[in-house]
Amino acid sequence: MHDWARMNETELQTRILADAQGYDPASRPPSRLTPHRDALLLYRAKGLSYEEIAETLTRLGLKIRPTIVGTYCRRNFRKTDILRKRQEIEAGTAKTELPTVGATPVTSFISARRGGGRS
């Protein structure tokens, strides 16, 4: 290996290490979904899949991919959060109006599909 190649490799390693040491995770911008956290929790508790949530949000004006919805939900909601909200809905202590996807109201929990009912 030439001396210049070794020097460039060492310089690259130094730059990468310096960047990693200076990285501040708090400097990342918040997710576009953060203001809609409560709605996302309600959708998940009512059994909507990530795909259905993304479709609904897009229809309402927030163009978002199902993978982004899934990542946000997995990072921000524990299964117990979703189950607790589901129990509130069943007990009548939460808003009971069902969300709609397209023109069809969602009337049951969706647990068999990927992303539905699980978190």
Description:
The protein is mainly alpha-helical and 119 residues long. It has a domain at 34-105. The chain has five helices and two strands; from the N terminus they run αααααββ. The protein has a two-stranded antiparallel sheet. A hairpin with a 2-residue loop joins strand 1 (100-101) and strand 2 (104-105). Mean pLDDT is 82; it is low at 103-114.
What order do the helices and strands come in, and which of them pair?
Elements: H1 3-22, H2 37-45, H3 50-59, H4 66-76, H5 79-91, E1 100-101, E2 104-105
Antiparallel strand pairs: 1-2
Helix pairs in contact: 2-5, 3-4
Features:
119 residues, mainly alpha, two-stranded antiparallel sheet, 5 helices, 2 strands, 53% helix, elongated
User: What is the N-to-C succession of helices and strands?
Assistant: HHHHHEE
Q: Which blocks of ≥5 consecutive residues have pLDDT under 50? A: 103-114
**Gyration radius, rounded:** 21 Å
Residues in β-strands, percent: under 5%
Note the total helix count.
Answer: 5
Give the total of beta strands: 2
**Widest sheet: strand ordering:** 1-2
> How much helical structure, as a percent, in the residues?
40-55%
Query: What is the overall silhouette?
Result: elongated
The secondary structure category is mainly alpha
User: What profile does the largest beta sheet have?
Assistant: 2 strands, antiparallel
Please tell me the overall pLDDT: 82
